[in-house]
Amino acid sequence: MTIDFDVDTLSGMVPLRQAVFSLGSNLGDRMEYLQGAVDALRATPGLTISSISGVYETKPVGLLDQPDFLNVVVVADSTLASMVMLERALAIEEVFNRVREVPGGPRTVDVDVICVGERRINTEALTLPHPRAHLRAFVLVPWLEADPAASLVGHGPVAELVRNTDTSGVVRRTDLRIE
Ligand SMILES: Nc1ncnc2c1ncn2[C@@H]1O[C@H](COP(=O)(O)OP(=O)(O)OP(=O)(O)O)[C@@H](O)[C@H]1O
Ligand SMILES: Nc1nc2c(c(=O)[nH]1)N=C(CO)CN2
């Protein structure tokens, strides 16, 4: 018999899982916003950053008529429930005055939860893995740099996804660095 349980609803003893966050900014002092968001993730109890990608200048995906983004990916080990990670991500966006005027439009900082271990969730508030991550070179390229062995639940090795994705709009900014 297999007992299927869900660690997000199992109170108390939660295992350490790998969480992946995609951060983007295309308004104001983009590096300041990204550094601030990474610092806020680093200060999150129950979450320890294990790797941060380099900084990438990326052409906007979706709504094209907006400034270029800076994107980074943060990989962490965490005992937090997935919903708590989303709440933290949304709180960080709030702190940095993110204004949602246009869906998919410009923002000071956007913090998306890409995946939490092998967890699959499909609720109105949270979808895991992020439903568009496998299509987004601005997520996949930095993620592969941060974790060359990365794999995306349901889609396979990130290295393979990168090989099958147009990465021409994603350029490493070797002059920039998140501390
Ligand atoms: N994996 C996830 N990461 C972040 N937000 C999520 C996720 N799944 C669902 N959401 C929900 O999506 C809502 C809208 O997110 P947001 O405004 O950041 O979208 P967007 O950045 O414009 O577009 P996209 O979702 O394509 O990145 C959030 O309030 C959140 O509840
Ligand atoms: N290059 C780039 N394009 C985007 C980004 C982003 O972070 N980078 N975020 C979006 C909504 O999450 C939509 N389009």
Automatic annotation (TrEMBL):
Q: One Pfam family for this entry, by name?
A: HPPK
Which InterPro entries does the protein's record reference? Hppk, Hppk_sf
Look up the EC number in the record and give it: 2.7.6.3
Keywords, in A-Z order: ATP-binding, Folate biosynthesis, Kinase, Nucleotide-binding, Transferase
Q: Which GO terms describe its biological process?
A: folic acid biosynthetic process; tetrahydrofolate biosynthetic process
* Catalytic activity as recorded in UniProt: 6-hydroxymethyl-7,8-dihydropterin + ATP = (7,8-dihydropterin-6-yl)methyl diphosphate + AMP + H(+)
Its annotated pathway? Cofactor biosynthesis; tetrahydrofolate biosynthesis; 2-amino-4-hydroxy-6-hydroxymethyl-7,8-dihydropteridine diphosphate from 7,8-dihydroneopterin triphosphate: step 4/4
Tell me if Plastid is a UniProt keyword of this record: no
This protein is called 2-amino-4-hydroxy-6-hydroxymethyldihydropteridine diphosphokinase
